[in-house]
Amino acid sequence: MLTRRPIPALAAFVDHLWYVDEPLPPGRDRTLPTGAAQLVVNLAADSLRWYDGERLDKPHSAAGAGLCAVLARPIGVDTADQAATVGLVFRPGGAAAFVDPPVAVLTDPVTGLDELWGRSGATLRERVLSAPTPQARLAVLEQVLLERLVGATGPVRVTGQARAIGSARPADPAHDSALSYAVRALDRGAAVASVVDRLGFSASTFQRRFRAAVGLSPKQFARVRRLQRVLPDATGDDVEWALLAAAHGYADQAHLIHEFRALTGVTPGRYRPRSVDAHNHVPLTDSSNHQLPGRAIMVT
């Protein structure tokens, strides 16, 4: 697995890029909400599959290059689709700079870039596949984002001038200082009401602006990000759940268990991630989360 930070022009919008090319067997995982959108390109096949429904067994698919929306619920994924993939993780609010409708209206877990970007989205996978090396494939993703960011009609050279243009869009949500502050504060565990008071917005204005940019309401985002702070400490047979609940601001152990199940679909006691490095991916089985034969990890 290859990961790296984005070029400076995209640093306000993109957290990191990743590339995987491994022989992975088929299987299905429960993927947990993270509070961030992703752009994913399946290099092995021109499709991205996911599953929803009560048992995460209702199949859906999109084109092989897609935008994975910000969700407050888990979905199922075919891990075989991730054997050869390239993609990037947006910062909260960062995807809004590249999507014409507000990201909050993207209710499907995955939307094909052909639907969002037309021809440029439909040809993205082909452009990525034509690049000769993993690093070059990551660079193609950055190139496409730059083209959309600066409004170019043709290829954009990644020069200092392009970077300067791309980093000077104050109207974009990623450069909105109020929303940036809200994201950071909620990510640290601040109460929504205290953030609203600090910013001086009405509650309805704050809700509307935050949801349009990030894709979740402030409360949903805060819940998901608190879950993300809990997950690294939620494995093993000796977890002190009451202490963990207190450490992360839950009212009590019962509150943590309720929130955990609401956001992941499993109780803390049945949470068995793929590995300590992949705590957002839980193998799906009929009655538990223990590993099945022939399973593979999806990139986060």
Question: How would you characterize the overall build of this protein?
Answer:
There is one protein chain. The protein has about 300 residues and is an alpha+beta fold. The chain has a domain at about 1-165. Helices cover about 35% and strands about 15% of the residues. The chain has helices at about 115, 120, 125-130, 135-150, 160-165, 175-190, 190-200, 205-215, 220-230, 240-245, 255-265, and strands spanning about 1-5, 15-20, 30, 40, 50, 60, 65-70, 75-80, 85-90, 110, 280-285. A hairpin with a 5-residue loop joins strand 5 (about 50) and strand 6. Helix 6 packs across helix 9 and helix 10 packs across helix 11 (about 255-265). The longest helix has 17 residues, at about 135-150. The protein is globular, with a radius of gyration of 19 Å.
Break the fold down into its secondary structure elements and pairings.
Elements: E1 2-4, E2 14-21, E3 28-31, E4 38-42, E5 48-52, E6 58-62, E7 65-68, E8 75-78, E9 84-90, E10 110-112, H1 113-117, H2 119-122, H3 124-130, H4 134-150, H5 160-166, H6 177-188, H7 192-199, H8 203-214, H9 218-230, H10 241-247, H11 253-264, E11 281-283
Antiparallel strand pairs: 1-2, 2-9, 3-8, 3-11, 4-7, 4-9, 5-6, 5-8, 7-10
Helix pairs in contact: 3-4, 6-7, 6-9, 10-11
Would you count the extended β strands for me? Answer: 11
pLDDT < 50 stretches: 152-172, 286-300
Distance between the termini: 11 Å
Spatial order of the strands forming the largest sheet: 1-2-9-4-7-10
User: Beta-strand percentage?
Assistant: 15-25%
The succession of helices and strands, N to C, reads EEEEEEEEEEHHHHHHHHHHHE
Quote the average pLDDT: 86
Percent helix range = 25-40%
Helix and strand composition category: alpha+beta
Number of helices: 11
Largest sheet: 6 strands, antiparallel
The coarse overall form would be: globular
The Rg value, from CA coordinates, equals 19 Å
